[in-house]
């Protein structure tokens, strides 16, 4: 399980150098996005032509019955690297299905160290890192999203548990608008944008403070939202 940098820049400013030794030994990769995976491996400088590597895509469009086919080379004795489009494979990522299938077949699954925007945002938030829940994507429809926000805010208050969300980048502003309209004024909200990139922004403030000074230009940028 090979983490991929979330932002642009030098791969090895973010990843530990020890990952390179593993990556250089692999010639088969199961990836969420072929183009971004090839670019990542090229920037990483793995020491061999990218065109000599074998790739198989695994994403939200992959039929469940095809996943067995993806691990056929592993059952034959080869090793594979699993690469998410960004961040840690298997975390909010279809790579988890490959890992689960490998466990069922007795294939060892090895996680390498690297960035997870979820944990990095929580680390920098100042919110509760002892008890937290990652809730993924909230409903798209406004009424259902508002209901979900109220549910998770009640849970945050009752359990003192940080509630973490992500959104498709082009809908970030809509999610923020609903959070600010729905949450109580003293609820704390962390917004973490472009984590590990030169344009990284991470700020925690109350909803009342965010209402007075909302962030600009959230759309089309990867972001994490946390409430407590």
Summarize this, please?
Helices cover 36% and strands 17% of the residues.
Order of helices and strands: HEHEHHEHHEHEHEEHE
N- to C-terminal distance: 31 Å
Strand order of the largest sheet: 4-5-8-6-7
Task: Work out the radius of gyration.
Answer: 19 Å
The count of helical stretches stands at 9
Helical/strand content category: alpha/beta
User: How many runs of DSSP E, i.e. beta strands?
Assistant: 8
Query: Whole-number average pLDDT?
Result: 94
Fold topology:
Elements lengths: L17 H7 L3 E4 L2 H11 L9 E4 L6 H7 L1 H4 L5 E3 L11 H10 L12 H9 L6 E6 L4 H18 L2 E5 L5 H11 L5 E6 L7 E6 H6 L10 E5 L1
Parallel strand pairs: 1-2, 1-3, 4-5
Antiparallel strand pairs: 5-8, 6-7, 6-8
If you had to describe this structure to a student in words, what would you say it looks like?
- There is one protein chain.
- By secondary structure, the protein is an alpha/beta fold.
- Helices cover 36% and strands 17% of the residues.
- Helix 7 crosses helix 8.
- It is elongated and about 55 Å long.
- The chain starts with 17 loop residues before the first helix and ends with a strand.
